Amino acid sequence: MYRFLLSRQWVILTLVAVLLIPTMIRLGFWQMHRYEERTARNDLVARALDAAPVPAESLTAPGKKITTRERYRTVTAQGHFDTEREVVVRRRTDSDDNIGYHVLTPFVLNDGRILLVNRGWIPADGPSQTAFPEVPAPPGGEITVTGRLMPDETTEASGIKDLEGLPDRQIMLINSAQQAERLKAPVLGGYVVLMEPEPKNGTPERIGRPGNEDAALNYAYAIQWWLFAAAVPVGWWFLVRREKRDRETAEDAAEPQPEHAAV
């Protein structure tokens, strides 16, 4: 009754089912791995954001690479803004995905070294974006700034191409080594996303606190793939039973009916 399983159609169907089961199991483990990665990253970010502020000089120095554990740490620094050498970072979006600039201002520390400070987002000044936009000034004089420490941006990590031939005082990536060459001064590795002091009239628009990645979604996907893997053999057996039943019905219908003797 099961000879039909040797037909070409059923052999192909069975092979596909056999291949789908381990594939779906592996996809489930991959999603679970992503869940664990995202959960660990969320915990790391939460610990960094909740940690007590420390002086920026205690975590970074000229040429230093900001590590994963140092990223998002709240740091403070004393000095003054140097708006004469301020630049803007092209093609950055606000919370509503409007395209504009990030304002990158050198913050000169008391010892002469420079900390790069991303003061926030401003809208683009026209479609051409060739002229240097009008940038609200930061507080003047000696002040203390507080912000989140971030690693240098690279094309490999961000996917943003570091274009050449840009308009004056416009850049694509925030990179301390490039800025040290431009400024001809020692620049601390990485940069700081400004949190305090608050900008006047809400501009530049502050960059929001990083949110949690949706790790639970990966967990749900993992369970889903494993349920699919379990459903494949069940579905295959259901199709086999239905095929057997249909064949039996067809055979019964094809059998000649016995003739009844005339009375």
UniProtKB/TrEMBL annotation:
Taxonomy, superkingdom: Bacteria
Protein family membership: Belongs to the SURF1 family.
Pfam families the UniProt entry points to: SURF1
Organism: Streptomyces rochei (Streptomyces parvullus)
Classification via PANTHER family: SURFEIT LOCUS PROTEIN, SURFEIT LOCUS PROTEIN 1
CDD domains: SURF1
Membrane topology field: Multi-pass membrane protein
Coiled coil feature spans: none
Main location: membrane
CC annotations in GO: plasma membrane
Compartments where located: Cell membrane; Membrane
Transmembrane regions: 219-239
InterPro entries in the cross-refs: Surf1/Shy1 (IPR002994), Surf1/Surf4 (IPR045214)
Keyword tags: Cell membrane, Membrane, Transmembrane, Transmembrane helix
UniProt protein name: SURF1-like protein
